[in-house]
Amino acid sequence: MPMRTKHPVYRHDLYSASAIRDTYPHYAALRELGPVVWLSKHKVHALPRYAECKRVLLDNETFISSDGVALNPIANRMGQGTTLCSDGEDHSRRRSLLAHRLTPRALRTMHDTVDQQAAAVVTAAVAQRTVDAVDLATTLPMSVVPDLVGWPQRGREHLLRWAGATFNALGPVNRQALRTLPASLGMLRYARDVVRDRSVLEGSMGHDLLRASDEGRIMPTECATMMIDYLAPSLDTTISAISSALHLFATHPEQWRLLKADADLVPKAVNEVVRYRSPIRGFSRTAAHDTDIAGVPLPKGSRVLVLYGSANRDPLEWDDPDSFEIRRDAARQLGFGQGTHGCAGQGLARMETSAILRALVERVDHIKVAGTPQWALNNVIHRLERLPLELVPA
Ligand code: HEM
């Protein structure tokens, strides 16, 4: 039992409103305490350092996802049937049904469209000059992903609220999670209607799923959960990465000048943004049998919390981890996860974020913060809610 183990205890609420808005000091305190820290408030073993996070992500036989990756039993039950919350063959089967849509080859066919859309979004923003960068960051994912998944036009206005709520529900049961629970159920209800009415767009991922169900490769009930599987994680995450990139380049003008001088740095910059400001705070795993991490015994059934955001700032892994430096080799960052559950959509996310950065480099001389940024209050997504910026044209 956790009380009998000797590892350090952290009593602060990692999911209080203030900790959500300013998480990095908590991560630093956790890393300082040790490789495995018992969060007494949330009854989970947090892994704040890089080495242990990576080890757990790569050992998916010991640390399983099918008991859910959330921090509360309701979300863990509701997550059953998703790719995110399955293991072994069940997981491979689900993942293979849609993975072909997101391979580098499949993405190449979308490249020009994404580039053109990014150029249009940035041109319009530069014409406005002062913008909320979160709006700018929202437009591209919203115009790419719902079409790819095949969501009908009707109901799209709710997508962002539903997706944000779905992430909130994956944290502990706190005020944020309860406030947004009805909205996360809304997405599931809507997805079931879409599958029942077969109103998915022709040729989309949703369409592939209906066909798989018609051919008996998946259960009809799995169609709706799997649509959410690809829709829920694909909006806020990318919006986070794009808006964080804009914020970081506004506040680090020397890094912006480096990027302007050499646009080939864009892919490295994307890794560094996701390292420095990881869009997903953390997901959990359950020990399938008695085990240990860094000498700390973990009986079967123990839940561990992989803190991607903290691992990505671990000084044991990174030189000067709190400095934003786009020339560093951040390819091993864990912001997209790693191993068998590593983000299925990272190629698309990288493509969207890169397209926006390239469009900015071409059209903007420098970026200035034009008001106080506000952080979103979300248990799992780490992103800005509002970011007034001035885009000074080139
Ligand atoms: C910057 C943007 C993104 C970030 C930071 C991100 C992050 C992550 C992370 C950390 C995981 C691993 C979960 C785990 O370890 O249990 C994950 C999984 C996943 N992501 Fe992403 N994601 C992003 C964008 C996307 C997009 C655009 C899509 C879809 C088009 C997507 C679809 C998925 C799916 C389906 C999984 C589950 C994979 C599995 O369990 O096998 N993500 N993502």
What brief labels describe this structure?
394 residues; alpha+beta; Cytochrome p450; six-stranded mixed β-sheet; three-stranded antiparallel β-sheet; 17 helices; globular; binds protoporphyrin IX containing FE
Summarize the structure.
This protein has helices spanning 17-21, 24-33, 50-58, 73-78, 88-99, 104-108, 111-128, 133-149, 159-168, 175-197, 205-214, 220-231, 236-251, 253-261, 266-276, 308-311, 346-363; strands spanning 9-10, 37-39, 44-47, 63-64, 130-132, 283-287, 291-293, 296-298, 303-306, 364-369, 374-375, 384-386, 388-393. It contains 17 helices and 13 strands.
Verbal overview:
- By secondary structure, the protein is of the alpha+beta class.
- The chain has one domain (2-393): Orthogonal Bundle (Cytochrome p450).
- The chain contains 17 helices and 13 strands.
- The chain has helices at residues 17-21, 24-33, 50-58, 73-78, 88-99, 104-108, 111-128, 133-149, 159-168, 175-197, 205-214, 220-231, 236-251, 253-261, 266-276, 308-311, 346-363; strands at residues 9-10, 37-39, 44-47, 63-64, 130-132, 283-287, 291-293, 296-298, 303-306, 364-369, 374-375, 384-386, 388-393.
- The strands form four sheets. It has a six-stranded mixed β-sheet with strand order 1-2-3-9-6-4, sandwiched between helices.
- A hairpin with an 8-residue loop joins strand 11 and strand 12.
- Helix 15 packs across helix 17 (346-363).
- The longest helix has 23 residues, at 175-197.
- The mean pLDDT is 94.
